[in-house]
């Protein structure tokens, strides 16, 4: 029985993704339907589950998917991380926050249309069933933010009827969250 559980740990996942540009495509299957239905990774485009590179990075790290290039070559976690870092300067900070929120059981989606990095749904809430509760901005503890930047982020959250959440990543890659809310005296 112990051998069987060890075999399951090292077995490749049943979900295969192909990186095409800034997205990863996964064929429709029972495991990919489960991945979407349980955790809302990606979105369905025709019969393919389309996930972002940061979602793919997380799923590869967690050994939930196997990732390949369009030429069929396997892409490791380290190789994918390097590829994304070439395109996104602040990737590691964003990824630390994304991974931490996912590990805590939250659904995290992009929030580019809101002018933020992520939107976060409260536990148990799925996109399409209700709105996100927070807009989330990841920052490194050594970064500076002007009052104008801070005010702009707060206005975005307020105007979209969401709460502002700042995820501060320290040198050990631990994340501390600060929720900011408007108050009336």
Overview of the molecule:
The protein is of the alpha+beta class. The chain folds into 2 domains: 2-86, MutS, DNA mismatch repair protein, domain I (3-Layer(aba) Sandwich), CATH 3.40.1170.20; 89-180, Trna Endonuclease, Chain: A, domain 1 (3-Layer(aba) Sandwich). It contains 6 helices and 11 strands. It has helices at residues 2-10, 30-39, 53-61, 77-87, 91-103, 147-159; strands at residues 16-20, 23-27, 43-45, 48-52, 66-68, 74-75, 107-110, 118-121, 134-140, 163-169, 175-180. Strands 3-4-2-1-5-6 form a 6-stranded mixed sheet. It has a 5-stranded mixed sheet with strand order 7-8-9-10-11. Helix 3 packs antiparallel against helix 4 (77-87). Residues 3-10 have low confidence and may be disordered.
Number of helices: 6
How many β-strand stretches? 11
The ordered string of helix (H) and strand (E) elements is HEEHEEHEEHHEEEHEE
- The helix content is 25-40%
Total separate domains: 2
Shape estimate: globular
Structure class: alpha+beta
For this structure, what is the CATH class of the largest domain?
A: Alpha Beta
In short:
The protein is an alpha+beta fold and 185 residues long. It contains 6 helices and 11 strands. It has helices at 2-10, 30-39, 53-61, 77-87, 91-103, 147-159, and strands spanning 16-20, 23-27, 43-45, 48-52, 66-68, 74-75, 107-110, 118-121, 134-140, 163-169, 175-180.
Question: Which keywords apply here?
Answer:
11 strands, globular, alpha+beta, six-stranded mixed sheet, five-stranded mixed sheet, MutS, DNA mismatch repair protein, domain I, Trna Endonuclease, Chain: A, domain 1, disordered N terminus, 185 residues
